[in-house]
Specification:
The chain is mainly beta and 160 residues long. The protein has two helices and nine strands, in the order ββββββαβββα. An eight-stranded antiparallel barrel has the order 1-2-3-4-9-8-7-6. It is globular and about 40 Å long. The protein binds manganese (II) ion.
Length: 160
């Protein structure tokens, strides 16, 4: 029996600063990175991705306003779908090793991506998120500008 594909979600989050929370389901939780400029389909673009705390899977469906405290502000589900790990040994081991390759099947993001850890120093490891040069690559495009709306409600973050 085929295993269910793991989920991914990208939540746009207007907290103190605007960022995109990129989350991959690994072993039942959402491993998470804050990507200030959001993902890109352009393989020439390397996006900083700061590792943040794991989140529960249910959080990946959250859209609305965080009322107070850490992360206060609006959240939309900017993209979601499933992913396929590319390589040997599994996603958890690849992330532990600091280099993970995977293929996204979302509503906006599609094709191969890499997360490459560049810096382990505290407080949080830093990574780069980059698009593999494949049939889904798009040079010069910026989905955060051309496709800003929630894939759940159709709202922009300003409309939440
Ligand atoms: Mn966030």
């Amino acid at each position: 029996m085929a295993r269910r594909s793991p989920q991914f979600v990208v939540q746009q989050h207007q907290a103190t600063t605007l960022h995109y929370d990129f989350r991959l389901e690994v072993d039942g939780v959402l491993r998470s990175w804050a990507v200030p400029k959001g993902p890109s389909l352009d393989p020439a673009v390397k996006r900083l991705a700061v590792e943040v705390d794991d989140h529960a899977k249910a959080w990946g469906r959250f859209e609305g306003r965080i009322g107070g405290g850490y992360g206060k502000g609006a959240v939309i589900v900017w993209d979601r779908g499933t992913y396929e790990f590319l390589g040997d040994g599994g996603m958890a081991a690849a992330l532990e090793a600091g280099h993970a390759k995977f293929r996204l099947a979302g509503e906006k993001l599609r094709g191969g991506f890499v997360l490459q850890r560049t810096n382990r120093s505290p407080p949080k490891p830093q990574w780069l998120l980059l698009k593999l040069d494949d049939a889904d690559a798009e040079r010069g495009g910026d989905l955060t500008a051309t496709a800003p709306r929630s894939v759940i409600s159709g709202k922009t973050i300003e409309e939440i």
